[in-house]
Amino acid sequence: MARRLSKLQHRPLTAPSKLSALPFSTTVSHENPQISTTADGQDNHINDPIYNLRDLLEQGRNETAYNFTKSLILSNPSSFSSPSHLLSLFSASSSGDASLKLTLSDMLLSICSESKMHIQVSELYGFMRQEGRLPSFGYVRMIVESLVESKKFDNVLDLFKEMVGLGFRPDKLVYGKVILAAVKLGDLKLAMGLFETMKRKSDDGAGAALDLYREAIRKGVKIDNFTCSILLNGLCKEGKVEKAEEVLKSLVEHGLVPGEVIYNTIVNGYCQIGDMDKAILTIEQMESRGLRPNCIAFNSVIDKFCELQMIDKAEEWVKKMVGKGIAPSVETYNILIDGYGRLCDFSRCFQVLEEMEGNGEKPNVISYGSLINCLCKDRKVLEAEMVLRDMMNLSPDRVVYNDMIHFYQEIGHVQKAFALQQEMVDMGIRPDNKTYNSLILGHLKEGKLSETKDLVDDMKVKGLIPEADTYNLLIKGHCDLKDFNGAYVWYREMLENGFLPNVCICNELSTGLRKEGSLQEAQSICSEMIANGMDDLDTNEDLSAVAKGKHNSSDAR
């Protein structure tokens, strides 16, 4: 009830008045020329409830109004032929107050939805549209559900388009219903477009993929290879590869002839979850069905073996690839460079670069970037600089510059980091948050707090918004320099911008503030973090002392 009524935001609830003690059949005096009771009272059975309902809403007594409306709708027999009938009579009697109409509309939608009166919800929506009104955002989901249940699929799509255009942000349940409506109408292209949008904005792409697949099969909509690969990819990305195989098997039974793209999706899915036996088995199944695996399938296997530091197995699969007449691609060589780089086998990295060029493939920015990244991690500054300056006339991209800038600040070459950032700008590459984070960290290590603030200001001027990682760096950096009051300023800005620091930083900051005597600030951190669900916050010993100190201060006053 509380959640439902929270959507009715027009007036706050007030204390019960004498009106609530009156029987609802009693007429409340109210002047209104549009609805008049006859002398013999023959219309009172309709007019009286309308007057009473309007007075309850005008007084802001929404909960009482809700219960009253519910009794009017669900009573048997009812004085009103339908919820829309009640709304139309109320609208006629309250033409001057649009907010009351909207409040009652929302109440009726909620009551009908709760009572599974889907046809009535659809009728209410239709009446509201005729009146030129749209439902509140909070009621879109229930209307969509009812329209689907009522098989008014065109209306579902119209409502969705209109509400999204007004700023409504659908959740995965709304997306699921709208996708279902598109499938019911046979518009699989629209359904897939909505599915892709939902995947970008939702964490339940797999569930939606299964729903879409089941409904398409039930509806008899033919799924082609492209559509199937999207569905399977949604499942594989969430690690549900065996479920993806089940779906594929079912689609084959319904006439689908899987192509390379579908098998590549399954191979990559098994590689992602580390099941190399099944990944290899899928490649063998491809070949047994007359399909020739391409670079994409082999690269997935080679990449996973490199990630697992099984470099010999990776090389073995490169040889298999060549043996089957498939030339390694630039991506294949890049995977090997990164794999050997992680093992700090840089001589082999340079050999792979030479092999690459010898086989007619030109190294790209990623080739050099992977090598530079690995050299930086192994703190080989001269070699990294050499590769950066010898990139075969290729311009470094943002990733390469960021790796080098971060590396320079890590080894204390902050001036080189800033010089490289300027080179980056001169090359027309816009620094991002990662660039600034490295520079900020460099200044903090040097104790340059004023310059650090200037960097953050410059960030904002350039249109970059500091995020949680930036604020965590700032707070931790100030704490390391024992500037706890300065850290607290960044902490407050972080909270105001909707970010939360991590627990360790909160503990360090609150402890430092307490030791400096800033008990109120320390206690506020403790209270705010607990309120935000940080159960791991260290509230014993140091923070308990904060609370105790605050209590003692209060006693002293």
Please describe what this structure looks like.
This protein has 557 residues and is an all-alpha fold. The protein has a domain at 1-149. Helix content is 69%, strand content 0%. The protein is built from 30 helices and no strands. The protein has helices at residues 2-5, 44-58, 62-74, 83-93, 98-114, 118-130, 140-149, 153-165, 172-184, 188-201, 205-219, 225-237, 241-253, 260-272, 276-288, 295-307, 311-323, 330-342, 346-358, 365-377, 381-389, 398-410, 414-426, 433-445, 449-461, 468-480, 484-496, 503-515, 519-531, 542-556. Helix 3 (62-74) crosses helix 5, helix 12 runs parallel beside helix 14 (260-272) and helix 24 (433-445) runs antiparallel to helix 25 (449-461). The longest helix has 17 residues, at 98-114. The chain is flat. The model is unreliable at 1-42 and 539-557 (pLDDT under 50).
Counted beta strands: 0
Pattern of helices and strands: HHHHHHHHHHHHHHHHHHHHHHHHHHHHHH
Query: How would a textbook summarize the main sheet?
Result: none
Uncertain parts? 1-42, 539-557
Summed up, the helix count is 30
Q: Look at the structure and give the mean pLDDT.
A: 79
Whole-Å distance between the termini?
Answer: 44 Å
How large a portion of the residues is in β-strands, by DSSP E? Answer: under 5%
Short summary:
The protein has helices spanning 2-5, 44-58, 62-74, 83-93, 98-114, 118-130, 140-149, 153-165, 172-184, 188-201, 205-219, 225-237, 241-253, 260-272, 276-288, 295-307, 311-323, 330-342, 346-358, 365-377, 381-389, 398-410, 414-426, 433-445, 449-461, 468-480, 484-496, 503-515, 519-531, 542-556. It is an all-alpha fold. PPR repeats lie at residues 224-258, 259-293, 294-328, 329-363, 364-394, 397-431, 432-466, 467-501.
